[in-house]
From TrEMBL:
Protein name (record): Outer membrane protein assembly factor BamA
Transmembrane segments: none
Pfam families (alphabetical): Omp85
InterPro entries to which the protein is assigned, alphabetical: Bac_surfAg_D15, D15-like
Record-annotated Bacterial surface antigen (D15) domain positions: 468-749
Cell location: Membrane
The entry's keywords: Cell outer membrane, Membrane, Signal, Transmembrane
GO cellular component, one term: outer membrane
Amino acid sequence: MKKNYHTYFKYALTFGMASAVVSCNTRYLKEGEMLYTGAEINIENDTISKKEKKNLKSALEDNLTPKPNSSFLGLRPKLFFYNIAKEPKKEKGFNYWLKYKVGEKPVLLGDVDREFNKDIIENYSENQGYFNANATYDTVSRNKKAKVIYTLRPGARYLISDVKFQQDSTLVNREIQNLTDKTLLKKGQPFDLDVIKSERERIDNGLKERGFYYFHPDNIIVQADSTISKNHKVELNVKLKDNTPDLSTQQFSIDKVVVFPNYNIRDVKEGKYSVPMNPDSLQKYAHEDIYVIDPEHKFKPKIFDRALYFKRGDLYNRTNHNLTLNRLISLGVFKFVKNEFEVSDSLQHKFDAYYLLTPRELQSLRLEALGRTNSANYAGSELNLNWTHRNFFRGAEQFKASVYGAFDVQIGGPENAKNIFRAGSNVQLSIPRIVAPFRFNSSSAFVPRTNITLGYEFQNRTEYYTLNTFTGSFGYVWKENARKEHDLKILDITYVSPANITPLYDSISQKSDAMRRVVERQLIFGPTYSYTYTNTMLPKANTIYYKGTLDLAGNITGLLTGANVKKDKEKSIFGVPFSQYAKIENDFRFYHKFNEKTSLATRAIAGVAYPYGNSEYIPFSRQFFSGGSNSVRAFRARTLGPGSFDPRTIESGYYFDQSGDIKLELNAEYRANLYKFLNVAVFADAGNVWLVNEDTDRPGAKFSKEFLSEIAVGAGVGLRLDFSILILRLDLAMPLRVPYYERGDRWTFDKINFGDSSWRKDNLILNIAIGYPF
């Protein structure tokens, strides 16, 4: 019975609190005021289906104004907070935040224009084909609350009986007739004003592709005749308006193409040049069919020949118009791109195309300093000096050079992790075209690029070893559109040369082949290719991101030389055995947006690298790693796996930098905004890495049919401080399943003990990072 008393008390308390919230919402109303609780729409018609009624009712409700105060389970908590908060004296402080940010001003019956809403209901219904719609309204009130009930009698919905496109002998009409086969107006479909508007825009778009630059959708009229039939039918007649301007009916072609690559509004005001220009003054700037007004010769004219889709004599079309503007922007050297057309010959219907381009600063120097920490118990800093030239050879080539230095200091964790110092430099030349012995034609809005890179890095792990890494690549990047991107490196070279290997590390590597391979000389070269698809930039509830990468190292060289390390036929180049393997990695992400403040992000990673021919193992720098702030966050960076191998069994304690040839990972994260820049997340991660071949030093590391039982699982909560220019992320995670525990003890639910300080120290992992993990 005691338990029942508690239950009754709980229900009574809940009911009492709810009643207090409800009563508080009306207690603050003045005499004669009523809280508006919303509208109800009743549709009285037996001739239309339930589905049509439902769709019509939903659309009408969306159009009614104002909306009532938001509610949750019948309560209006935002209104409650507005009422209990004191009126603030200033536009800041707790009271202001509670009343106007958390709270919501009451919507009163007096705020509702019922006659206006009635007109909206009737007009919208008629626009949907219910030509005889009639609406009335009534107001129901009780206890200082009121709602409005609208009753709609729409009558039968009119259907399209026929669609006629009026014909005449004009050029514009002939082009309209050529567009009729894809009309949106179909016989038997309901009359719908929105579809009619879309049809006018479709015709306008089609004419824009055929040279009618000055045409406008308003030049089209669609007449509806409902008198031809008594069976609720309507005939549509599509025609050109009688008052259509003559300019809209003319088909224009390109006369001259003029480019101002150093356009500045100041120069125009000072009279240095004007638009349009005198044709005689253009001749000295002629480059083939393009006039480039560049007296200082800052840009090579041929870059515009590649970027511009309009040539002299071409018929105007909107596709080439937009492609040209987008390609000029994607050159990366202009911050503003403006386009104007000026009629040059009204009799022959020709106009000049002017492109007014305002360049960015051609050179920039940037110094970056940052501090960082990670879950592998390292804290450090990095300093970067970057120089960029956006027009290196006067052809919009981007040249980037950077030098950097960084250090990471061990602040806990493995005793023998040691500190890391890195320094290096990189240079990249990006050319806005495909440099190749063949011709590459692209109709994309994005300029394809040829990228050439060179780099060097010096890395010193104190008391262990030094690595000198040299890199270089030559390849192409091109986009089909805003969603699809290709990155092909014809040649991607990495050469790693170890130095200063200490006796301490040498003794460690004698006990582990994996540790020994870290400091082996490595020569990796071959093509790599990646494909990226994303629509995350679109305003949709569900969006995806996918990136697939293929890395083929030494495959042709290995084939030509007959390399086979398993048959003692290892081949070398300049005394260094080259790596031969095939590697593929897939990264798929799915994002679901519940509303403006909450979303769900998920990611799946699957990758495999297989050594063959001249290699028995995948080079350490090309293997997969797991754990850390952007992976399985309940495990420290690079300490997870491979497989069920327990890194704690390594005698030296050197158990970080565990790697594998196969990787599987799943991540899910629920994200919500609490207040302005403060966001929270709840996440779960699962994954691991495995080896392709057996490793006697790491039992359980090979991928097998038992791989599902070797998946690590972790979960946690996080804070994100979103300062627009920077997102600082703090994630606190704990392991739920540890793959290197005994098979029956891998799930750790029964071991969780937040009161045990030693348990918290070993099992609560704090990740501090910049940006989102995926």
